[in-house]
Each structure stands twice: as C-alpha cells, then as structure tokens.
Write a structure and sequence with these properties.
Elements lengths: L1 H6 L36 H23 L3 H26 L3
C-alpha cells in the first residue's frame, strides 16, 4: 500500500515551494491576555435605548391593530355587542326584571 502512495502522481495544482529562502518566517501569533468587556450603557444612552424599544413595540402593536380589514372589525364588533346583549338578557332573567 505504501508503494502505491509513494508512486501516486501529484494531485495538487499548486507548485511545491519549500525552499527556505522563499518561505515567510515572519508570521507570529499573539495570545490575548486581557478579556474584552462590553461597556454597559448608562444615563442618556440607556434612556434612548428604552424609549426606542418602546416606540418599536408600540409601532408593531399599532400595525397589527390596523392590519384587520373593515369587515373583520365589523364582525368582531357585532359579536361583542351580541355577547353583551345576551349577558344583559341573562342578568335580567335572573333578576326577574321585566
């Protein structure tokens, strides 16, 4: 098996360039001895962040509220009115007021 591997043709398209004079020997690696800390927002930055988040949430709720069609809104309004009317009629029946 090793004979086959030793006699195998070269598969790389890059040239073999292992001459010492052409190698780059200046690459270095440095370890990071300090921990990177993210600064927490303070003061006006924190207020601006919270106000912008509240505005975003309000805009989403407002968009969802206006997303329903007129027909859906009318249907839900009629169902709510019907429910209130039934509850009122049931309360009158229980109280025996006519």
């Amino acid at each position: 098996m090793t004979d086959v591997l030793e006699r195998a043709p070269e598969m790389s398209v890059a040239e073999r360039n292992f001459e010492a004079k052409e190698e780059v020997n200046t690459m270095t690696a440095a370890t990071q001895n300090y921990a990177i800390r993210r600064a927490r927002p303070h003061g006006i930055d924190l207020v601006i962040m919270r106000v912008s988040l509240m505005a975003l949430l309000w805009a989403r709720r407002h968009a969802n509220r206006t997303a329903e069609s007129y027909e859906d809104h009318t249907r839900m309004y009629r169902e709510t009115q019907s429910l209130h009317r039934r509850e009122h009629d049931a309360a009158l029946l229980v109280a025996r007021v006519r």
